[in-house]
Fold this sequence. Notes:
Helix content: 25-40%
Distance between the termini: 75 Å
CATH architecture of the largest domain: 3-Layer(aba) Sandwich
Shape: globular
Number of strands: 16
Radius of gyration: 22 Å
Order of helices and strands: EEEHEEEEHEHEHEHEHHEHEHEHEHEH
Structural class: alpha/beta
Largest sheet: 6 strands, antiparallel
Amino acid sequence: MAACFRLVPTATCRRLDLQNRAGATLLSGATSVSSISKAVSSAQLVGSSLLLDSSSQEVFSTHAPASRHSKSAACAGRSSRSLVYAMAAAVLPENTPVVSPQWLHDNLSKVKVLDASWYMPAEKRQPFEEFQHGRIPGAIFFDIDAIADPTTDLPHMLPTEAAFSAAASALGLSSSDSIVVYDGKGLFSAARAWWMFRAFGHPRVALLDGGLPAWRAAGYPVDTEPSDGAAGRHKAAATAIKDSYSKKGASNRLLTFNAKLQPNLILSVDQVKANIENKVYQLSDARSAGRFKGVDPEPRAGVRGGSIPGSFNVPFPEVLTPQGQLKPASDLTQVFKGAGVNIEDSKQPLAASCGTGVTACVLALALARIGRWDVPVYDGSWTEWGSLQDTPVVKAE
């Protein structure tokens, strides 16, 4: 006979609390497969399969052998499209948004690794081609340009929940996965992917500190043979986005990832306009000082130079070491304080902006290391703000 358990989320989302339907606690604070197994055993469910319904946050258990996409009597009537294994993910380190190369090497089989490399157009680099010839073993390519809203001219804007769910599922990701992202520069575009997963309700994500360069420097292996499977997943994710925005839709796709947008992590242009008057957020701009002051040209045609009134300039390289790793929390605090940001007032919300919503996520990552995890990013950033005619702009005298 099948039994059903409820997954009780905790504040950190890094442990499991299991209760049965009657509310009796079977497991509290589980952080390992063994502790989950003991709880299952005590409930006389030895040998059962635990499955997580990512849309309802419930764990189902059934004695009968279950395929990855089957459903038990306990969840009869539910779609099997969102059922994923709940016991595969590693527990990410607490209170830090980054992991070291050694940690990733030691836990490589327990996480999904994403290469989220992206480069400025002027660099004329091809991130997927570079991925095919040099990547962390088992890595999946995550294209921030393809997994984006295709209905806007603004680059790599967040897609809809349905589109992100379809794309992540096409990549082979599930809502129960612990994810580690990296990029080819060290710490750059991977921060965007880190923020995207958090913005879509998946906090079990960390960034590889120092990226692929740090992994190589540590002497860990790199796959250099092109992968047909990686190419297929890359194409499937792009197709999933396209289908989600078309009349065809993605309703027939098997979904293993369930995105839930977190509005508190995103700012719209209207919210940023309102912030000029109400000053709810201290907005940090990650662009260079020259662009912030309006003395250097913007890299995209038709975009004015300058800054958003009341914003603070924190060029993103200032939060990184020369090796492309995130600075210690104490150093980061001084960087933001030096820019005029009141970082120590926890009641004063913070926010981040940049050119196209990429390096703003580097600032959000840095603020998470300080302990400020819920920092929204202005998704349209300066490319949107500087292109509009009704948005005020400040320039250096």
